[in-house]
Amino acid sequence: MVYAGQSLKERAEMLERTRWSTEFSWPEVEKIAGHLSLSRAIQGMPVLKEGDLDAFMCLIVEGEVKVVKEDEKGQKKVLATLGKGKIFGEMSLFDGEPRSATVVPSEHTTLLVLTKENLNNLIEEFPLLAVKLIMKLGKSISQRLRLTSGKLIDII
Question: 29-84: per-residue pLDDT in tens?
Fold first, then answer.
């Protein structure tokens, strides 16, 4: 990933345009954006790799990524294609476990990145806002689990 600097206001506007932040007021969006960095991901270059231990999540501002996992035979399978307003990597903020999949941009992609360190800073500085953000992330994880469970039952 290539990190590109943008002003706080520009990051806040990007966050708001994704429509991911609809539950947050403008002052809250600005506070969250103050803890995000901007990154440009290059087509075909993994943003994160299965097995990596780094802890950060990404919100797609522009572009598209594919979530890929290898099966038992080493074949790469696309689990999901994610576009603007979608997040990935959020589980690492909670469990510290190795990445469960690889994420590869299918085109040049702009991301807002939240690291574990910056999440911890947000928790210290704005605890109520951090709870609201964590609840949103938890809801996202829950929705994905429900979707996966629904797909799994069709296979069993």
Answer: 999 999 999 999 999 999 999 999 999 999 999 999 999 998 888 889 999 999 99
CATH superfamily of 2-155: Jelly Rolls (2.60.120.10)
Residue 16 buriedness (CB in 10 A; 0-12 / 13-18 / 19+): middle
Q: Tokens 């979707």 identify what position?
A: 147
For 39, 79, 100, the CA distances from 110, given in Å and listed in that order, are 6, 21, 22
Dihedrals φ, ψ of 98, to 5°? -60, 150
Kindly report the pTM of this predicted structure: 0.90
How does DSSP classify residue 156? -
CA atoms within 13 A on the CB side of 23: 11
